[in-house]
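This is your field. Please look over both lines of this record.
***
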Amino acid sequence: MTSDNKKVYNLKGASKYVLSFFLTILFLYIAFRNVNFYDVLNSLKNVSFFWVLIFIIIFLLSHVVRAYRWKIILKSVKPDAKFKNLFGALMVGYGMNCVIPRLGEVTRAVLIGKWEGLSKTSMFGTVILERIIDILFFGISIIITIFISTKDVYQSFPWLKLTLYISTAFLLGIIIFIIFLFKFKDKFSNIIISFISLFSSAFAQRAHYIFEMLLEGFSSLRGVTNYLYTIFLSAVIILLYALNSYIGFYTLNMQHFQNVDFGMGWVVMSISSIGVAIPTPGGTGSYHALVKETLVLLYGFGNDISSAYAILTHFISYILFIIFALIIFFVLNKKHESLIKIVKSEI
């Protein structure tokens, strides 16, 4: 890589960090601009440690199921892939996302490739496949939210309708793209790459690599049984996420303010998933803003208890990801190399 290319690469990387930092500050301001932190701290003093423990158990269970879904996706590539490696790479990836947004996906692909002796290209592809499945199911969860919510969600969140339209168009575009990619393969990808090369040869090479990843990743999921199993596990993951949001009410004894139910947890989970998709470290700021606004606008909770809920549930998840990432990486990575060094050497 030439010095000029290095400067451009470093500038792009720096711009991503600046954008992430700016978004984090912006959403934290939106989340807490009218909040009395003394009242929030008083709310946090009433934490139920029993329900926090239940929250942690369900949180870990959801990621155990996610790791098992990844094993099903990899079944045709390596049926004997060790579950501890899959779960470990997954948790390290999420831990990395808590520090540097979106680098976690690269990290988990690199680590599982290293630990299981698999092609990092095909592993990147399976991670992309998982993300597409997640987007599809989160989109479905938002649609369900509109039907089960007792309040007018669009009135409280006017931007949600546009988000749904854009998400639907995006998903349809992905589905059409995948169909063409697998039906015509090299012919389809060559046409797109040739078109891109008219504007940038470097970007065309990058596109070729992405096509290669997609083909290898998507071809790893084979067989009707595995397809059905993957769909079933994806539904279980969403239900566990919603259950965790529901349990979150009990961690702060919010059931004493008003009746709470699983449907409320589902709505909070669905809307907050949009915040997690925004490129901030571990959803910091964006998660808090959407959760707080959901609890205040849709369910009439106060600013202090709603902010406490957002802070507590995010803090537990964030800390668990960081702790598990550090422990698992140093246990499974026998050489104890630097994680950043490993990732940079592979990309």
About this structure: The two ends are 13 Å apart (CA to CA). The CA atoms of residues 6 and 101 lie 21 Å apart. Residues 1-9 have pLDDT under 50 and may be disordered.
